[in-house]
Amino acid sequence: MPRLLACLLLFFSSLVLAAPKADLWPYWQQHNASSQKVVDHQRWQVLLDKYLVVQPKQTLFRYKAVSDADKYELDRYLRDLGAVDPRQLNRREQFAYWVNLYNALTVQLILDNYPLKSITKLGGFFSFGPWDEKLVTVDGQKLSLNDIEHRILRPIWRDPRIHYAVNCASLGCPDLQPTVFTASNHQALLDKAANRFINSSKGVSPSGSSTRLSSIYDWYGSDFGSKRQLQAHINQYRQGSPVTLGKVSYDYNWSLNEAK
């Protein structure tokens, strides 16, 4: 029995450490550069305005307070997004579409399973979280959160700031932004999200010659480049003294980002 337990612990540890690679799903690569179509994200904005609590060091969500009527509005918003063919949008509109879809699906997933202490408690017995579950159908294709992040967003846009935009409902995650992503604001919002995370202790925490970084920089190191490139990226947004990445450790808090 101890041997079996050790094997299970090793298995689950490998699940945590093995972040998915960016692997393009070619079906979603198409876009319409001349499209002027604008996707309406107002329902999602209303929910953020009502239930997101922005604190100086952490953004939290009031899951327990969400009314049945607003749960319906969230479901309606997601059904509306599912009825859109994002391949007919321009790239800017597509980016906002996928990020908002990811974040709204994550909130709905928590609400559907509330109360819980961590999103990692969801999924099957041999799963670390629900990220591979098919949660939405878009243009006849069933999609998971991992599909959206690692098979669409990361390989198409190749922008490390994507990791600051998608939210996994955890305290260690970059904050859920209080403003929905749109075609016109997404670049400024990505910079704002990067700035907030990098200047938070959960993102970058220097102490003498050592620096504790979010595990995001370990899991997705290929997106940030070499240690020198990562250091330049961090210092691009870092306020105060620049960070030198000498001795580095990593940490992540999977507790639910809930406002009590």
Could you give the count of β-strands?
7
Q: Strand portion, in percent? A: 5-15%
Seen as an oligomer or otherwise, the chain set is single chain
The largest pleated sheet is described as: 3 strands, mixed
Structural class: alpha+beta
* SSE string: HHEEHHEEHHHEEHHHE
Roughly how much helix do the residues carry, as a percent range?
40-55%
Q: What's the overall average pLDDT, rounded?
A: 93
Task: Count helical runs.
Answer: 10
Strand order of the largest sheet: 5-6-7
Question: Spans with pLDDT under 50 lasting ≥5 residues?
Answer: 1-16
In short:
43% of the residues lie in helices and 11% in strands. With 260 residues, it is an alpha+beta fold. It has a 3-stranded mixed sheet with strand order 5-6-7.
Can you offer a commentary on this structure?
The structure is a single chain. The protein is an alpha+beta fold and 260 residues long. It has one domain (22-251). It has 10 helices and 7 strands. Strand 1 and strand 2 form a beta hairpin. The protein is globular, with a radius of gyration of 19 Å. It starts with a helix and ends in a 9-residue tail after the last strand. Residues 1-16 have low confidence and may be disordered.
